[in-house]
Design goal:
By secondary structure, this protein is α/β, with parallel strands linked by helices. The chain contains twelve helices and 13 strands. It binds adenosine-5'-triphosphate. It is a peripheral membrane protein.
């Protein structure tokens, strides 16, 4: 078992998949280490689902290699190391919610207690309902419970909050915090930037079937230089300000100048050095949304 402890939770090496003429995933390399919470962020059709389905062995790649904990996906899953919550979902057949989770628990070597799972995922209140009559949000919670019941080391979630309202999302992420605190590895696909920013410690941006950025949310924001410096600085020409290293654009609003920066730290040192009269200085961080739009609107492939 030591190999499963040291091997990355997910390893994708030059993995590619086409559907006819559509190159859904184009040679992706991705290592996810134990304990990481990774958001796979991309617009519709970016290749997120195909990537996760290949990681779980549900879709066979045309080329490249996939291992989970150093094992072929089917073996890692058979050992109960992996829980998945996918768009296709758990078949919700004619059972009560509680019965379904009990049946799922019986498939795993070391399941978590059913009561604990029902509480954690917010399913306890409707555990006696038939699975065929659930609302979209309830069905999503049941899928989450089914993914967690085997007490997996790796949790793979494809757009986990897609069917949830604002309260449902909040509850979902509250439950996830407990899972993350248990040092599990979590990978979730989303096109919700706020979720990636708030809940992942690493964001992998995918577009057109390729990974186009990979880093912490702050690193992703920094790669596209979206920080802004505002300062009161009268009597200085904008043409002079754009010559400051790290400044890419300058605008004036009365006494205030607004500078868009590719490197706000460097720009700030030089500005303070040059202009001792600068006052009311503010550095405003770019949002992940700005970074994402900038990254995904570039030409790729
Ligand atoms: N079974 C399939 N048959 C044909 N084309 C497919 C199939 N699955 C995916 N594709 C195509 O592959 C590309 C990537 O799709 P994928 O579902 O992986 O993207 P995604 O990032 O998960 O998108 P979404 O956010 O809309 O779920 C898309 O162009 C999609 O239309």
């Amino acid at each position: 078992m030591t190999d499963t402890e040291v091997a990355p939770s997910i390893s994708l090496a030059r993995v590619a998949k086409s559907y006819g003429a559509v190159r859904a995933v184009r040679g992706v390399d991705l290592l996810v280490e134990a304990g990481e919470t990774v958001a796979l962020l991309g617009p519709n059709g970016a290749g997120k689902t195909t990537t996760l389905d290949m990681a779980l062995g549900l879709v066979r790649p045309d080329s490249g290699q996939v291992t989970l904990f150093g094992l072929p996906p089917s073996r890692a899953i058979a050992r109960g190391l992996v829980g998945g919550m996918l768009q296709t979902g758990v078949p919700l057949d004619y059972l009560r919610v509680r019965e379904l989770i009990e049946v799922m628990a019986s498939f795993y070597p070391t399941p978590r207690p059913t009561n604990e799972i029902l509480e954690l995922t917010g399913c306890a209140t409707f555990q006696g309902q038939m699975t065929t009559g659930l609302s979209g949000g309830q069905a999503q919670r049941v899928r989450f419970a089914a993914a967690l019941v085997g007490d997996p080391e790796l949790l793979v979630l494809d757009e986990p909050t897609a069917a949830l309202d604002v309260d449902g999302r909040r509850e979902f992420w509250r439950a996830m915090r407990d899972v993350v605190a248990e040092q599990k590895t979590v990978v979730f696909a989303t096109h919700n930037l706020e979720e990636a920013d708030s809940h992942a410690d690493r964001v992998v941006v995918i577009n057109g079937g390729s990974i186009i950025a990979d880093g912490t949310p702050s690193q992703i924001k920094a790669t596209v230089g979206t920080k802004t410096i505002r300062m009161a600085l009268p009597d200085i020409d904008l043409s002079e300000l754009v010559t400051v290293a790290g400044v890419v654009n300058a605008q004036r609003h009365g006494l205030t100048v607004v500078l868009t920066c590719s490197d706000s730290d460097r720009a700030l040192y030089e500005l303070l050095d040059r202009y001792r009269s600068a006052r009311d200085i503010e550095v405003i961080g770019g949002t992940l949304e700005e970074a994402f739009v900038a990254l995904t609107s570039e030409e790729h492939g």
